[in-house]
């Protein structure tokens, strides 16, 4: 238990006082690795392209959810909330962003102050845990998460809570990195500092799919999208202060077939 508390404290510090989203690595806006199309290899990537890649990852996740105007959606692990605001704005949805970090929620309120005013009550932020959602049953039409679940120790609880708060016929979609079935006994912790420290929990994508199935979801789909993530993100990293960091090993692990990036969806 003490070790779990220490790991969570590290996560809280990373997103709290250290303000991960302010780093060039994340273009000072969203906090995800991005979804990229092919880019001309003969030039540097621009900051605008980096930001656009992160917005596009949100759109790829939302493409797995029915989003009629007025749909009520919940984002798990919203961070500074720019993705939550994007969803409320582009999909005409009533969108709630949930995060456990008071510091991140304060930033979300500040960064999205204009959107909170203009979207006429269709955007809000709330503090809470993704394993114990502070909402009654049957509250939402759709639930999504963009690169947050790698920090959760109990994904089975996430699956159960997601199923509880979704209305009958509701949809779930999440994007993050998982291990492949070929990753057993591979030295991931030796290569990836956040895995060694416990900040990132790497587990098989198939295991999370089984959690969703056990929670009562149907039509569970696991889609690898690493071709649109790892090489382009590594290329961006090579242009930042992290060019000589352990973070370059993400691409190495992907190319060895040990990890991939996935969109997991269910109904």
TrEMBL record:
InterPro entries: Erg6_SMT_methyltransf, Methyltransf_11, SAM-dependent_MTases_sf. Pfam families: Methyltransf_11. Its EC number is 2.1.1.-. One of its GO terms (biological process) is methylation. It comes from the Bacteria. GO terms for molecular function: methyltransferase activity. CDD domains: AdoMet_MTases. Residues 74-173 form the Methyltransferase type domain. Keywords: Methyltransferase, Transferase. Signal peptide: none annotated. This is Class I SAM-dependent methyltransferase.
């Amino acid at each position: 238990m003490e070790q779990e508390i220490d790991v969570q404290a590290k996560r809280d510090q990373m997103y709290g006082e250290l303000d991960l989203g302010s780093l060039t690595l994340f273009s000072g806006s969203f906090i995800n690795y991005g979804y990229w199309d092919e880019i001309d290899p003969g030039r540097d990537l621009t900051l605008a392209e980096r930001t656009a890649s992160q917005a596009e990852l949100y759109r790829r996740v939302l493409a797995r959810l029915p989003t009629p105007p007025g749909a009520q959606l919940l984002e798990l692990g919203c961070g500074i909330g720019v993705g939550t605001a994007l969803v409320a704005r582009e999909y005409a949805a009533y969108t709630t962003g949930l995060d456990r970090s008071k510091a991140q929620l304060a930033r979300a309120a500040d960064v999205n102050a204009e959107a909170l005013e203009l979207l006429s009550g269709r955007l809000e932020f709330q503090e809470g845990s993704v394993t114990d959602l502070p909402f009654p049953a049957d509250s939402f039409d759709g639930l999504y998460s963009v690169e947050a679940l790698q920090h959760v120790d109990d994904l089975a609880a996430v699956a159960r809570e997601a199923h509880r708060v979704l209305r009958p016929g509701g949809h779930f979609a999440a994007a993050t990195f998982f291990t492949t079935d070929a990753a057993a006994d591979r030295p991931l912790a030796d290569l990836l500092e956040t895995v060694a420290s416990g900040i990132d929990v790497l587990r098989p994508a198939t295991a999370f799919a089984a959690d969703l199935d056990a929670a009562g979801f149907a039509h569970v789909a696991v889609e690898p999208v690493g071709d649109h993530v790892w090489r382009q993100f590594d290329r961006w990293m090579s242009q930042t202060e992290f060019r000589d960091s352990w973070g370059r090993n993400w691409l190495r692990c992907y190319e060895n077939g040990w990890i991939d990036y996935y969109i997991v969806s269910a109904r």
